[in-house]
Design a protein that fits this description.
It is a single chain. The protein is an alpha+beta fold. The chain is built from six helices and eight strands. β5 and β6 form a beta hairpin. The radius of gyration is 18 Å and the shape is globular.
Length: about 210
């Protein structure tokens, strides 16, 4: 009750197949809301580094970009099927970690306003126990006024290229199944679904029951 009072859009992910967890969630008036799907790209075709679109620039992140980048991320995901808001404190904590690598973030901006970013992508690198490197597409965001121009695909392809340059043979990402814009894009670039987790929300929010 305390959590819902402060976070009406609270979502919970019970262990898959747990009858006890699902019974508890139903007893507190939660219902299935969406699935979080993991997609993977195994040894797909090599992707070339994409060029900046005419009238735009592409460059990696610098610390002076923090405020504009933070605002863009929250703005781009404000109308997401499962809206996301990242606090400044949380983002700064991530950027202050010793393994933070600014070259894993790409920013897109108009050439005449190079500090006014309209799109971004960041990727993750993680070594595996067998000595390989697993890569992941973290987030792709495009400002609402700049969508339907192919920028999402461009940013995705940069992410694939950057991870391939780091030696990744397996690239993964996660997407909610109610994100009708993103899922077809990822599948068209060679990603295939491998796992799915159900997320539950309070019935006042669970408008996409499954």
């Amino acid at each position: 009750e305390t959590a819902l009072a402060n976070h009406p859009q609270l979502e919970l992910a019970p262990p898959v197949g747990s009858e006890h967890a699902e019974a508890f969630l139903r007893s507190v008036d939660f219902a299935p809301h969406h699935l979080l799907r993991r997609l993977e790209r195994h040894d797909g075709g090599v992707v070339d580094e994409p060029d900046a679109p005419e009238g735009y620039i592409l460059r990696t992140y610098q610390e002076a970009d923090f405020s504009v980048y933070h605002a863009l991320l929250n703005r781009a995901f404000s109308d997401h099927p499962t809206p996301i808001s990242v606090s400044e404190e949380r983002m700064r904590a991530v950027h202050e970690r010793p393994d933070f690598d600014p070259t894993l973030i790409l920013l897109l901006a108009p050439s005449d306003r190079p500090a006014d970013f309209v799109g971004f992508v960041f990727v993750r690198l993680r070594p595996t126990p067998d000595g390989e490197i697993k890569g992941g597409i973290g987030m792709i965001g495009v400002d609402r006024a700049y969508r339907q121009r192919g920028f999402g695909r461009l940013l995705l392809r940069w992410g694939i290229w950057r991870l391939q340059q780091a030696g990744c043979r397996l690239i993964e990402l996660e997407v909610v199944d109610i994100n009708d814009r993103a899922l077809p894009l990822y599948e068209s670039e060679g990603f295939v679904p491998v796992l799915a987790w159900p997320y539950w929300a309070h019935r006042a929010e669970a408008v996409h029951d499954r």
